[in-house]
Design goal:
This is FYVE, RhoGEF and PH domain-containing protein 1. The protein is an all-alpha fold and 111 residues long. The chain is built from nine helices and no strands. The termini are far apart.
Length: 111
């Protein structure tokens, strides 16, 4: 029984392999199907005028990216504070020390 199944499987691939080479050869020898596809393409092109009204929605996709640009400016501020915080913290630390000293100097000068 198993042998029969194996034989059937072996016969199936053999038969399937035979039609496959013939198929591509037929397509190559028969330019008809390729010509039919172009003929069908013009018909979609005729339908394209209908989708053309749908083309404006594509600008809407362009507008969607336009909407993010305002959002893009907002993300930079968060990103800026992150690098700015360490820099500012470091900068404020020395500056803070300098500012009290300058304030002390100014106070001493005022005195």
């Amino acid at each position: 029984g198993n042998r029969i199944l194996v034989k059937s499987l072996s016969l199936d691939p053999g038969q399937s392999l035979e039609p496959h080479p013939e198929g591509p050869q037929r397509l190559r020898s028969d330019p008809g199907p390729p010509t039919e596809t172009p003929s069908q393409r013009p018909s979609p092109l005729k339908r394209a005028p209908g989708p053309k009204p749908q083309v404006p929605p594509k600008p809407s996709y362009l507008q969607m990216p336009r909407m993010p640009p305002p959002l893009e400016p907002t993300p930079p501020p968060p990103s800026r504070p992150l690098p700015a915080d360490p820099r500012v913290a470091k900068g404020l630390a020395p500056r803070a020390e300098a500012s009290p000293s300058s304030a002390a100097v100014s106070s001493l000068i005022e005195k």
